[in-house]
Amino acid sequence: MVGDGAFEIVQDLLSHRKELGDAIQHGLTILKSEKVSSNNQPKMPTYGTQVTIQTEYERQLDKIKRKEGRRAKRGAENGMNDFGADDFSSLLQASERKQPFDDMIGTGEGESSFQVTSLPQGTTRKHMKGYEEVKIPPTPTAPLGPNEKLIEIRELDDIAQAAFQGYKSLNRVQSRIFQATYNTNENILVCAPTGAGKTNIAMIAVLHEVKQHFREGILHKNEFKIVYVAPMKALAAEVTATFGRRLSPLNLVVKELTGDMQLTRSEIEETQMIVTTPEKWDVITRKSSDMALSMLVKLIIIDEVHLLNDDRGSVIETLVARTLRQVESMQSMIRIVGLSATLPTYKEVAEFLRVNADTGLFYFDSSYRPVPLAQQYIGITERDYAKRNDLFNSICYDKRLWSPLNKVIKHWFLYIPARIQGKPLEP
Ligand SMILES: Nc1ncnc2c1ncn2[C@@H]1O[C@H](COP(=O)(O)OP(=O)(O)OP(=O)(O)O)[C@@H](O)[C@H]1O
């Protein structure tokens, strides 16, 4: 077909058969991909293979942009929108009409309805170029009620004094919950702001339980176990150290039981207070071989119970449900004490924990903070990602450098939306 002269060409073709096959395959792939992209984009000339050179900075920006795009898409699909401007304005207007203690739920007891109807008085909102700033002044500290007084440690019995060495008095929140927590055995839920002294509330509940097993000057250590459920292993270790130290004058043994710290059977027997995590306690109470241990539990303290609303909520829910079932089926008394940050759904949580809303539910709002908290929120409205990032950096820088608070504040924490934004990006 190609004549005598083509022998050499045919020979060449045969000897490079593999390379030719690969090249044709490669060409076909490129043609196919061009066809697909030409359907979506205006046609651009292609010059062989294109290489994009990106700096690390651009790469990171692209990554964040893609992530934001996905998040926005998810939000739109789920019908989630930003907090409406109208909603915000009405809250702001309501704050202007308000008196300082208008919405204080400061009784710290029983049922009181909690609804966000306005922002605190003195809240301001300013629109700046590329961003807006909302400043919420600190909530004034609630004044002492006419019958309110702090309980002095020296007024307490010997058991309580032994664990409160070094303290002069209970603070306001602790004084308020003391009667129900130390002198009754009912379930308790305390919702209080950060730093309100919840550890000592747990201590009061522990001391109440210990007191039940002191007879004729002897502590019957084998009659009970106290379980403290901390949200994280690191916190469990901290709680173990604190309670271990403070309960040592009463000869009580406190041990950690988490994924990191296993206990032998004899160690468990010698321990009166077990500090664990929800997941670990769930595993233990699920096993019938450990029934003997759960039968001895008389008090279970659940720290950060607001995590019920979180990813790990189902584990906490399970172990509460299991405890309640044990109480019902064995007719045994296990007291539940829940400690939580301020949460709007506290009534539902109280109901779930079988807490009597009139006598065992305590809710303290931010006017009970030991150190008042001023808040500033910056919402960046700039749409362009790179400009927004620059603005974000310069606002943080200015706030840090020029804030009048620099005179009184030594340490700053900066909360940022994404971890990657916390790293210095290449200029
Ligand atoms: N009665 C008291 N007198 C003096 N200081 C107290 C008293 N009770 C607690 N504190 C101190 O208050 C600080 C905060 O206490 P604690 O850590 O228990 O608060 P918290 O409510 O558990 O806070 P968070 O929600 O951050 O865990 C601690 O330094 C603690 O020593």
From TrEMBL:
Its keywords, alphabetically, are: ATP-binding, Helicase, Hydrolase, mRNA processing, mRNA splicing, Nucleotide-binding, Spliceosome
PROSITE patterns xrefs: HELICASE_ATP_BIND_1
Catalysed reaction(s)?
A: ATP + H2O = ADP + phosphate + H(+)
Q: Which Gene3D superfamilies match?
A: P-loop containing nucleotide triphosphate hydrolases (3.40.50.300)
Entry GO MF terms? ATP binding; hydrolase activity; nucleic acid binding; RNA helicase activity
Q: Does the keyword Hydrolase apply?
A: yes
| Keyword Nucleotide-binding appears in the UniProt entry | yes
InterPro entries named among the record's database cross-references:
DEAD/DEAH_box_helicase_dom (IPR011545), Hel308_SKI2-like (IPR050474), Helicase_ATP-bd (IPR014001), P-loop_NTPase (IPR027417)
Q: What is its EC number?
A: 3.6.4.13
Q: Where is this region: Disordered?
A: 65-85
Under which main EC class is this enzyme filed?
hydrolase
Q: Among the entry's GO cellular component annotations, what is one? A: spliceosomal complex
Q: Which domain of life is it from?
A: Eukaryota
Residues annotated as domain Helicase ATP-binding: 179-361
Q: What is this protein called?
A: RNA helicase
